[in-house]
Amino acid sequence: MEFLNELVQILGQQYVLTGEDAESYLADWRGRYSGKAVAVVRPGSVQEVAGVVKWCAANKVPIVPQGGNTGLCGAATPDSSGTALVVSLGRLNRVRGIDTDNDTMVVEAGCILQNVQQAARDADRLFPLSLAAEGSCTIGGNLATNAGGTQVLRYGNARELVLGLEVVTAEGEIMHGLRGLRKDNTGYDLRDIFIGSEGTLGIITAATIKLYPQPVAQCTALLGLNSVDDAVALLSAARKGFGPALTGFELIAGDCLHNVVQCYPQQRIPFEGESAQLPWYALLELSDSESAEHARERFETIVGDAIEAGLVADAVIAENIAQSKALWHLRESIPLAEKDLGKSIKHDVSIPVSHMAEFVETTNAALQAKFPGIQHIIFGHLGDGNLHYNVARGQYSEDQLLAKQDAVYEVVHESVHKFSGSISAEHGVGQLKRDVLPRYKDPVEMDLMRRIKKALDPQGIMNPGKVLAGPT
Ligand code: FAD
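A: This is the predicted complex of the input protein with flavin-adenine dinucleotide.
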C-alpha cells in the first residue's frame, strides 16, 4: 500500500480501490476474462488523470483504461500479473457545454452514453450513437472502440460523430484538441489515431461530439423473410425508397427471436403461424421529418412493393412508439438471451453486403460439416455489412463447445478473409483477436501500427497486450 501513497495523495483515499472494492473492475462483461491489478483508481478530473499517468510513467506501471466495462473482447481487463493499474473514467461524467448553433457538445469521457443522448435531447438535438449497452457504456469507451451500433447506416460509426478530443498521453501530457470544427486540415489527424485505439495509445478524457436535428417521428417495422438473399435485395430497395430516412436495418435469424421469448416470456414475436417460424427477419427503422403518419405511409408503400416482389413474407409495422420500442427491445434482448443460455463462440465480422448471403451459406455449411449439430446465432447490422455470427452449443455440452473454439474461429475467420471481410467489424481486437490479427491484416499495416504504438507510448505502458502482442 505504501507504493500507492502518491496516488492516494493525488486522488484521495476513497478513489484508490484495492481488495474487494476493486473486484468488479477486474472481469469483463461476458465473464470470459478476469485479471488482477495493483489497484483501481477513479480520477475525477483531467488533471488527476494526467497526475496518475505521470506516476505510472515514472514507475513503469502498466495502465488499463476502463469506461463502462461493457467491451466484448477483453480490452478493459488487466492481465493476471497484478502489476497494472486500472484507470476507471466513470467520475469524469460532466457535460462541459452545448453549442446549438454549431451543433456540438463537449462531454467528458466517463459520461454514460444514455446520458449523452438525453443531454442532446434536452437541447432539442439528436446524438445518434445507439447500442444495447448504452445504459452502461461510456462515450470514452465508445470512442476508444470506435463503436458502431444500430444507426451507422445513416450517421456512421463513433469516429464520424466526433470533431475533437482531449487526451492524456502515455507520458501524462494533456492534448487539448477539443475543436468543434468540421474542417481542419492542419496536418496529421491525431484525433483519428486515438479513436479505435482501445486505450493502447492514451486516455481520452473528453470529446467534442456532433449533434443532429431530432427526427420529427420514427417508425419501426419487423419483416419476415425467407433468405439472406431476400434481405440484401430488400436493403437495396429500402435504401432507394427511403434514402437517408432509413436509419436502421438489422438482420435477425429466427432462432435469435425464439431464444429471446424463451428467456423473457413477457416478450413476444409479433407474428402468428408460419410467419412466426421464418428463418430470417429484418428490423427497419425510418426517421421522418414530417410526421408519424407520413413515416407509416412510406413504410406501407415500400413494404407493400417488397411483398409483391416476393422479397418479404410477412410484415408488422409499429402503430405507435410503444410498439416501435417493443420491436427494438426484441432486437436488443438478443445478446442478453444468448448470454443467459450459456457460453457461445462470438464473431463480429463485416463482409461486403453483396457477398453476405454466400458468406452465411458457405460458413454455415463448413461449420456443420466439421461440427454437426452446432447452432448458429446470427444477427447484426446488415445495413453496414456487419454480422454477429455466433455459434452456440446445440447438441454439445458447454465444455465440448469451448474445446472447439479455436477450430470454430479458424473456419469463420478463413471464410471472412475469403470474402474480403474484417474479423472485427465494431467490437475491436482487445485480447480476443490480438493473436489472429497478424494473420489477416496486411503486414505493412501491422508494422505501421507497431511504429505508431512505439512513437506514442515509448515505454509500452498503455494497455499492454491489447490489440498488439508482445513488446513494441
Ligand atoms: P470499456 O469496455 O470499459 O473499454 C473498452 C475499451 O476502451 C478498452 O480497451 C478500454 O481500455 C478502452 N477505454 C475505455 N475508456 C477509455 C478512455 N476514456 N480512453 C481510452 N481508452 C478507453 N459495440 C458496438 O460497437 N456496437 C454494438 O451494437 C454493441 N452492442 C453491445 C451490446 C451489449 C449488450 C454489450 C454488453 C456490448 C455491446 N457492444 C457493442 C460493445 C461495447 O458496449 C462497446 O464496445 C462500448 O463502446 C464499450 O464502451 P465502455 O465504456 O464499456 O468501454
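The pocket of flavin-adenine dinucleotide is lined by residues 29, 64-72, 75-76, 89, 109, 131-133, 137-138, 140-142, 144-145, 147-149, 198-199, 203-204, 335, 426-427, 463, 466 (CB under 6 Å). The mean pLDDT is 95.
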